[in-house]
Amino acid sequence: MEKPPRIALDRNAWIHGAIDVVAADGMDGLRVEVLAKKLGVTKGSFYWHFKDRRDLVDAVLDTWREGRIRDIRKQTAAEAGAELAALHHTIDVYAAAKNRKGIAIEAAIRMWARQDAATAAIVEDVDATRLDCTRTLFLALGLSDAEAKARSVLLYAYVFGFSMMQCGKFPMDAARTRRWIMERITQ
Amino acid sequence: MEKPPRIALDRNAWIHGAIDVVAADGMDGLRVEVLAKKLGVTKGSFYWHFKDRRDLVDAVLDTWREGRIRDIRKQTAAEAGAELAALHHTIDVYAAAKNRKGIAIEAAIRMWARQDAATAAIVEDVDATRLDCTRTLFLALGLSDAEAKARSVLLYAYVFGFSMMQCGKFPMDAARTRRWIMERITQ
DNA sequence: GTTTTTCCATACGGTAGGGTATTGAAACGC
DNA sequence: GCGTTTCAATACCCTACCGTATGGAAAAAC
Known about the structure:
- The structure is a homodimer.
- By secondary structure, chain A is an all-alpha fold.
- Helix content of chain A is 73%, strand content 0%.
- Chain A has helices spanning 11-25, 32-39, 43-49, 53-75, 83-95, 100-113, 117-140, 145-164, 174-186.
- The longest helix of chain A is centred in the C-terminal third of the chain and has 24 residues, at 117-140.
- The structure holds a DNA duplex.
């Protein structure tokens, strides 16, 4: 019997494992002992790296905020003249079905933010950053500031809202609908 | 000391109490013993009216579905010629800040639907009904079926998405933005 | 090689809560 | 009045977890 080599976990391994759990089961589903078993250790390890469960939750939220802010800046980066394409790209990336995990985390954290003020503040930061990024793109297209803001709000509300809807029983041409809506938001 | 008169609870009292809890704490926050204490009884009563916790959850979901379907039909009812006003009214009612509890329940149930297939089917029913109700209004305004569907999807995605956003740190004229978006969706 | 630090296992106490079994009391049928 | 039905209280058992205390092994420091 080979003895498995000792691979020490760090806070980061716990945080990323926790994010997976949050995506699957929501913030309430994040349990220290369950996560420990998933990582192949016991909670003795957990309480070495974290003060308590709340410490992990805060770390998850911080990691999420930093990641989301970095991501939206990257996705909305556009050379001069490519702003419209960048907007289309942003909608595609954020509303895409391939982004199931990201959407699940968004929903879980926003749900949790209803009960937790600190989380609500983090969501506010992320949303403000996102809204500002697309506002900049709309401004570059020559729109007024008020219209750039309104279109940004519509863009994100659509993206988040669509990800929460279940259109399975509503017969439609999904691709065509997507295209129509994207035009409506950006032009 | 007056002895409080015995007021027998029925399933409905439990269900409505449960809906309040779900709005406040999500589906995971719905606990038999906690709800019993809130209703001033013990869980001995609960297990008289319900087989188990899942039985209550199912009852909550059924009640929610029936209520939501009845409500959307009522809100989108329009005399001939008043279809546009009905659309505006629908957006107002569903996106309104005054509807905090309704929004919280929507979010909680949609979150729960990620883990529970039966719930996902119920959400699908509600969404299909809602989409169809506004589609009918758009059709009455003379739009093509494809466009009527696309506008309906945009309408609900916006309403749900906006309720999940935290725009506190994004400075804007909220009323004016709302008006702009409403026009963009309906006209 | 010994000491120290790092990381984890084990064992334990405590609370919350699901579900059952039993008892009890009020209301109802007659 | 008297039995029956309806609804709720009580007492349990059991599981899932949080958090702590302590011991122990591996690695690093020296």
